[in-house]
Every structure is written in structure tokens, then in C-alpha cells.
User: Which sequence fits this backbone?
């Protein structure tokens, strides 16, 4: 670029149709795919450059309105549902990975938190990059929680309500305190809760955004899977860096364990950190080896210190906290199409027992990057219903041919209107499995069984689902209506038409 040419963000055409997600179960035909990049480094004026990127996104929205087509931002492509895509135009956001820490000059006087823990992350910052950025701060910081793996972008993870198992805290969207959203060809908004104001007027002006403080609108936009515009950046509250002490043991699937699963009262079982409540708790059951007991993982928070031995990585490249989805991918990898017994070979190798292994969150929730074709659905139920859902899952005749696992985690209910972790404490049950027809048969059997038994449930937006307008209405009731009303309030009709998608229509939300 010559010295005289104006600085600008760059928009380039990406690969031709179709788009395929990272784990290869979603194939979507599209009209055009764009990649948006920030102005070239060195950064001349940070906020001015950010505004150039916002303008580039606004240009794409303007074109989509003119051409009467749809537009949607894609994150890491880790969703296993069609949430991330549309049949119109797609925006690859992975290059939008700038960030800045806030400080006391960035916030309004009414901000009740600690400004030194605030970090603005541009939408395409991956969870892995966010961990590195936070670790690199002078007072080392960490994410309060994340999913079990780290390849999502921050905006993509939040948009579907990604969670771990920090059951006294919540999901990833629950540490977001500000959203910078490009909602139309001439508009970008900075939205926060009225009950929790954060950024000063001056900082919002630097971003070139219109300030909106409204609890309902904010709670609607948090989990909105690309339907409220293009999220340009999110403001998160981080935490001083901590260590996790991870243990994984096998325990009989008996009344004692079932009581813990329904109450998170750990009194009745032998825990690795007696007298202290774990930070994170997970129960994984291999339906082909019920007699061998559950794999019970507990993680205790410990003060950060240097010089600890880093945690082990499995032969397949999975960290100790990595998702069982990574584990099940290994099955499809080695012998596609075979069921059942393979789980008994793979699980012990890729999901080893552990005794008080230490690691920073970034090391524990660490992921390999070779992607296998997998399937996964994730169900949210009230904690109290966890044992009877387990019974139903094990009793389904389709379980015999299901080459997958049952993974139970617990998450505090979220304020986001469409968070699938909507119960006071939600038990999330992930069903990671090999890519096979039998897997879909099992999912359908479980969903039908829960509906017949009248067990209220939700489903992860970013995983395989059975959404219809009626089911989404049953899952969210008045919250779904509030979400639609909030979207109508924030987007004009042209922008709403652009940010709809076949997925949104399937759900009765757009
Ligand atoms: C191996 C694996 C492990 C997983 N582990 C967990 C887990 O532990 N817990 C859990 O809850 N989930 C888990 N998931 C699901 C995953 O976290 C979610 O599906 C997540 O949304 C994926 O994020 P992404 O960045 O890949 O976004 P994508 O899948 O690309 O997109 C997700 C949504 O975000 C929207 N979006 C992305 N960027 C923007 C933007 N800039 N503006 C507006 N909208 C945007 C998209 O439109 C889409 O609706 C896992 C998935 C896999 C494959």
C-alpha cells in the first residue's frame, strides 16, 4: 500500500460453495463467502482502525439489503448445527482478532467491578488466543470458564451459550458485560445492562457506537446465534489466573452418585478434595460398560504458582479437560461404522484416570486440532431430573447400537433469554458419538422418551437438534417472545431480513 492510499479494512472473497463445518457434519450451499480483515499492521490509531473494520462490515450489510439476500457471521465453525450458516452470504471472522484491556479511564463511575479485569476481544479471537492474551497481561488473567475445548471464537462460543462445568458460575456469556454489534448499514451499537453499566460515554464514542443500556435487550442479544447483526467485539470480565487440580476416578453408578447428580451435595461420596467444594464436576458414562462405573472428574481451584508440572496430553492430543467429543472422534477415525465395543477400547486410552494433576485452565481445556467427523447433541435439564434422564438413556433399546457416551456437567442458570442453561442449575448432558445413522436413531429415541415422560428440556443451539417452532416455544415460553421483540426493537426490517436464516425459521424465531 502506498503511503498516500487511505487505510482501510479488507474484504476478500473466500472459497467457493459449499461451506463445511470443522467436524464435517454440516454442509451448506451459499451464494458468497467473504473474509473481513482489519487494516494492516502497524496499527496507526487503534480505535480509528476498529471503526474502519466496522465500516467494512456495514458495507456488506448494505450490499445484502440491496441484493435482498441473507448474511451471517461464522466463528470457528465448531457448531454441529446449522446455526452458523445461511444460504445467502457468509462472513469469515477469524482474522478479526484484536483486543484491548480496559482500565479505570475506560469505565463509567457507576461501574461496580474491577476495571483491571476487563478485556475487549474482537469477535474472531479464539478461545485459545483469549487464554494467551489474558495470560500475557501484567497481572496474569484467565477466563472464568470455557467449553471443554478451545477452537471456538469468542463471539461464536457465546452466541450459542457455550459452557463448561463451573456450576457456581455459569456459561461463557455470563461473563460478557458489553456487546459491540453492527446492526445495519449505518449503525453499530454498544449494548450493556442498565443494571450493570460499564463503559464510559467517551469510550463508546471511540468505538463509534450508539450506547444502549437495557437489561432485556442485552440478555436477548447475548445468545442470539448471529441473528442480531455482526458482533464486532465483546467485553468480558476475566479473573486472576488460577490453577485447576484435576482428578478422574471411576465410581459405581449407585444411589450415592445419583444423589450427587441430583443435588451437587458431595457429602455422600469420596471426593479427592474433602471439605472443599469442587469448582468443576463431570460424570461420563460409557453405556457399553455401565458395570465398570462412571468416569467422575472433579477439578478444584488452586492458587496460581510457577513451577508445577504441566498436565498430560492423551495419545490423540487431548488435554485432561477436553471434551468427550474429541474422544469419540477417535472412534470414527479408527473404524468408521463399528459400534459399541470400540468405546471400551478407545475411552480408557483417550480419557485416562487422573490423580490431582495441575494445570492452568488453558492447559486443562486444551484441544487437538485434527478434526474427525462426529455427531453430538446436548440436552439441558433441571439438575433434579438428571438421574431419571440417565435411566431413560440407558434403558432405550437404541443404546445397544449407540457408539457414543453420556457426559453430564452442571451449570448455573444464565440470564441470557435463550440460554439453553435456563434452569436454576442446569444439568447438561452431551451425547458425543461416532458419525452414524444409529447415533441419530438414539438421539430421537432419547428426545421422544423425554417428551413422553414429560421431562422439561432444552437443546444446545450449536449441536444436533430437533427444533421446530413448537418445541422452541415449549422450551423457552415467554423468553422466546421477549427475544423476538428485542430483535424487532434493535434491528429495522431490512436488517432483520438480512440476519435471518433457514435455521432461524426452523426454530420459529425469524
Ligand atoms: C469438539 C467440540 C467441543 C465442544 N465443546 C463444547 C463445550 O464444552 N460446551 C459447549 O457448550 N459447547 C461445546 N461445543 C459447541 C461449541 O462450543 C458451539 O457450537 C460454539 O458456538 C462454536 O463456536 P464457533 O466459534 O465455532 O462458532 P460457529 O459454530 O462458527 O458459530 C456459532 C454461532 O455464532 C455465530 N457467530 C459467530 N461469530 C459471530 C459474530 N462475529 N457475530 C455474530 N454472530 C456470530 C454464528 O452465526 C453461529 O450462529 C463443542 C463443539 C465441538 C465441535
Assistant:
Amino acid at each position: 500500500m502506498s503511503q498516500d492510499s487511505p487505510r482501510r479494512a479488507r474484504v476478500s472473497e473466500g472459497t467457493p460453495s459449499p461451506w463445511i463445518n470443522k467436524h464435517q457434519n454440516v454442509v451448506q450451499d451459499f451464494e458468497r463467502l467473504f473474509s473481513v480483515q482489519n487494516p494492516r499492521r502497524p496499527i496507526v490509531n487503534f480505535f480509528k482502525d476498529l471503526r474502519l473494520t466496522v465500516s467494512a462490515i456495514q458495507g456488506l450489510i448494505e450490499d445484502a439489503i440491496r441484493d435482498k439476500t441473507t448474511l451471517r457471521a461464522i466463528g470457528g465453525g465448531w457448531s454441529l448445527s446449522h446455526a452458523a450458516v445461511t444460504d445467502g452470504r457468509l462472513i469469515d471472522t477469524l482474522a478479526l482478532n484484536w483486543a484491548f484491556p480496559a482500565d479505570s479511564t475506560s469505565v463509567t463511575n457507576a461501574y461496580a467491578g474491577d476495571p483491571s479485569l476487563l478485556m475487549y476481544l474482537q469477535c474472531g479471537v479464539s478461545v485459545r488466543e483469549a487464554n494467551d492474551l489474558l495470560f500475557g497481561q501484567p497481572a496474569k488473567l484467565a477466563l472464568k470458564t470455557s467449553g471443554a475445548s478451545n477452537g471456538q471464537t469468542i463471539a461464536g462460543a457465546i452466541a450459542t451459550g457455550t459452557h463448561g462445568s463451573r456450576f457456581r458460575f455459569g456459561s461463557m456469556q455470563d461473563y460478557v458485560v458489553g456487546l459491540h454489534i453492527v446492526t445495519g448499514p449505518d449503525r453499530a451499537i454498544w449494548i450493556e445492562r442498565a443494571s450493570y453499566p460499564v463503559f464510559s460515554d467517551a469510550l463508546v464514542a471511540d468505538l463509534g457506537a450508539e450506547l444502549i443500556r437495557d437489561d432485556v435487550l442485552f440478555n436477548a442479544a447475548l445468545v442470539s446465534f448471529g441473528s442480531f447483526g455482526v458482533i464486532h467485539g465483546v467485553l468480558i470480565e476475566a479473573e486472576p489466573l488460577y490453577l485447576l487440580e484435576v482428578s478422574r476416578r471411576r465410581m459405581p453408578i449407585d444411589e450415592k452418585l445419583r444423589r450427587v447428580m441430583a443435588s451437587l451435595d458431595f457429602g455422600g461420596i469420596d471426593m479427592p478434595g474433602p471439605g472443599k467444594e469442587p469448582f468443576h464436576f463431570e460424570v461420563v458414562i460409557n453405556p457399553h460398560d455401565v458395570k465398570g462405573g462412571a468416569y467422575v472428574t472433579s477439578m478444584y481451584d488452586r492458587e496460581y504458582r510457577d513451577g508445577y508440572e504441566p498436565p498430560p496430553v492423551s495419545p490423540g492430543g487431548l488435554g485432561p479437560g477436553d471434551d468427550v467429543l474429541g474422544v469419540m472422534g477417535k472412534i470414527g477415525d479408527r473404524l468408521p461404522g463399528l459400534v459399541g465395543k470400540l468405546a471400551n477400547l478407545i475411552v480408557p486410552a483417550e480419557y485416562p484416570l487422573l490423580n490431582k494433576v495441575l494445570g492452568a485452565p488453558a492447559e486443562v481445556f486444551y484441544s487437538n486440532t485434527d478434526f474427525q467427523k462426529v455427531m453430538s447433541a446436548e440436552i439441558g435439564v433441571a439438575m433434579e431430573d438428571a438421574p431419571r434422564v440417565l435411566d431413560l438413556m440407558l434403558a432405550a433399546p437404541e443404546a445397544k447400537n449407540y457408539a457414543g457416551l453420556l457426559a453430564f456437567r452442571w451449570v448455573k442458570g444464565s440470564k441470557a433469554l435463550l440460554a439453553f442453561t435456563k434452569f436454576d442449575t442446569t444439568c447438561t448432558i452431551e451425547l458425543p458419538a461416532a458419525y452414524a445413522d444409529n447415533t441419530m436413531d438414539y438421539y430421537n429415541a432419547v428426545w421422544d422418551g423425554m417428551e413422553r415422560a414429560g421431562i422439561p428440556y432444552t437443546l444446545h443451539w450449536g449441536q444436533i437438534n430437533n427444533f421446530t417452532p413448537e418445541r422452541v416455544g415449549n422450551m423457552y415460553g415467554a423468553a422466546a417472545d421477549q427475544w423476538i421483540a428485542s430483535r424487532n426493537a434493535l434491528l429495522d426490517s431490512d436488517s432483520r431480513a438480512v440476519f435471518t436464516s433457514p435455521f432461524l425459521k426452523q426454530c420459529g424465531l425469524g
